[in-house]
Amino acid sequence: DGGITQSPKYLFRKEGQNVTLSCEQNLNHDAMYWYRQDPGQGLRLIYYSQIVNDFQKGDIAEGYSVSREKKESFPLTVTSAQKNPTAFYLCASSEGAGEAFFGQGTRLTVV
Amino acid sequence: DQQVKQNSPSLSVQEGRISILNCDYTNSMFDYFLWYKKYPAEGPTFLISISSIKDKNEDGRFTVFLNKSAKHLSLHIVPSQPGDSAVYFCAASPGGTSYGKLTFGQGTILTVHP
Fold first, then answer.
1. CB of A19 within 8 A of CB of A108?
2. Considering CB atoms only, which of A33, A105, A107 is closest to B100?
3. Residue-wise pLDDT tens for chain B (114 aa)?
4. Which residues in chain B are contacts of A100 at CB distance < 8 A?
5. Is the dihedral of CA B23, B28, B30, B31 positive or negative?
6. Cβ contact B44–A90 (<8 Å)
């Protein structure tokens, strides 16, 4: 089945630690995106990549980093510089003039 | 600066009736509009979209209307079913090479009562 796989589904982080969220797609899409959802709010764009080895900051990139070494993979690292990392993180991909497809999300909690 | 707004946090309708969800936007550069349905702890699922060159798009029970002059779009669900109960997000994109670069509204919780 084609789709987007995010792992893990739940992630706990201690304060001061970096954590990396995985996102893999087998849809052969060029573009990939990371969004964050907080309770009662819409999704906000963190980073996006339109092609391998290239990525741009979204609206709330501070405290996050990404890489795009392969077309299929777009991991997101939540660094210790992110002051409020507890949130639901969603990865998406799209191709051309088509809608974005989303993964099932990773819930990150700082403990 | 909320560029996409869904002013109704929730909507409750009876099964079989029409559900109308509304969305307003401020950025004239938006060229492509979408509606997503989302359940808690899951990713959004695409429902329907509309390009700025159209004013209506229909897919089964779902119809999206776009009023560019008013910068307003709406999603009509007819007839509403209990399985439609979810959070609905409207989203806007600048199109071009950035169709997936979406700006989302805050969402509207739809509850359809049997």
1. yes
2. A33
3. 789 999 999 999 999 999 999 999 999 999 899 999 999 888 999 999 999 999 999 999 999 999 999 999 999 999 999 999 999 999 999 877 666 788 999 999 999 999
4. 34, 46, 99-100, 102
5. positive
6. yes
